[in-house]
Amino acid sequence: MDIEELQTFVEVADAGGVSPAALRLGVSKSIVSRRLFRLEAELGVQLLARTTRGAALTEAGATFRDYAARICAEIDVARETILPTGELRGRLRVAVPLSFGQTHFAPILAEMARRHPQLHIHTCYSDRFVDLIAEGYDCAIRVGYLQDSNLIARRIGPIHGKFVASPDYIKAHGSPETPEELVAHEALMQGTEAWQLMDGDKVITVRPQGRFKADNGTALVAAAAAGLGIAYLPDCLTHGYIASGALMPVMTRHPPPPAGAYVVRPPGQHPARKIRVLTELLIEYCEPNPHLAGVDR
């Protein structure tokens, strides 16, 4: 079984069609089609159903795609392990938060692409929780507090945040001073997450409630400025609003504990060298960067 055929199949499955996969791979559509034909002929099963809009995975194709992606990833790791000083090659798929990923992390990914012209970098910018294994990502950059999982994480820098509200909201509803008062207020959240606060050296967890939710930090900071409630957001999103007076810090006696920015990857004994290189570049940028950690400390 040819590794190029497996890589091509995974690319078509992820791209949703032969044409976009050919563009990603830098080959003609006829080459992609021939590779798919040979793979299906060898397996004796149809992996993709061709449609007018592209290509959709059959039931067998959906099952085989995950195995093929893991095989391709292992081959990449094997190549990098025996050639540790070689040029980075292949593809790196990264999931990045939307809220400030485009401003803070996009330049770093662009710099990595500049340094390694043989490397194909595909980035997904979204604040939704991406399943790295199921969706075939090599790694993700995540900010905040990491949930328990089987993923392997490496901290790349600090993230500082605050509880904030608009002057109009505080005038109408008051400013909470204790965790008990905080949970009585309208909370602006991404979902049903808990908030953590410091009480001296002790971390307290509260479960706020609210009617306005958004899966994007920029949308939440706009809602807070509009007077809809209290939000917990990173300083890099709120410092301009605080400087202009559109938002004010609240719960200053019970601040949230410092969070972090992390590179997370699926479990495995040997991380791919391209992930190690990206992680080192992110650490180099993030640790001394006040705009990522938050300027209102």
Brief summary:
This protein is an alpha/beta fold. Helix content is 44%, strand content 25%.
Explain the overall architecture.
- With 297 residues, the chain is α/β, with parallel strands linked by helices.
- It has three domains: 1-86, Arc Repressor Mutant, subunit A (Orthogonal Bundle), CATH 1.10.10; 88-159 and 258-297, D-Maltodextrin-Binding Protein, domain 2, CATH 3.40.190; 161-256, 3-Layer(aba) Sandwich (D-Maltodextrin-Binding Protein, domain 2), CATH 3.40.190.
- Helix content is 44%, strand content 25%.
- The protein has helices spanning 3-15, 18-25, 29-43, 59-82, 98-115, 132-135, 167-173, 179-182, 217-225, 235-244, 273-286, 290-293; strands at 48-51, 54-57, 90-96, 119-125, 139-144, 152-159, 161-165, 186-189, 195-199, 202-206, 209-213, 230-234, 248-250, 259-265.
- The strands form four sheets. A five-stranded mixed sheet has the order 4-3-5-14-6, covered by helices on one side. Strands 11-8-12-7-13 form a five-stranded mixed sheet.
- The radius of gyration is 23 Å and the shape is elongated.
- It starts with a helix and ends with a helix.
- The model has no long low-confidence stretch (mean pLDDT 86).
Largest sheet: 5 strands, mixed
Beta-strand content bin = 25-35%
User: Rg from C-alpha positions?
Assistant: 23 Å
Number of separate domains? 3
Assigned CATH superfamily of the largest domain: Periplasmic binding protein-like II
How far apart the termini lie comes to: 56 Å
The CATH architecture classification of the largest domain is: 3-Layer(aba) Sandwich
> How many helices does DSSP assign?
12
Report the helical percentage: 40-55%
Shape: elongated
The count of DSSP E runs of length 2 or more, i.e. the number of strands, is 14
Average predicted local confidence, pLDDT: 86
The ordered string of helix (H) and strand (E) elements is: HHHEEHEHEHEEEHHEEEEHEHEEHH
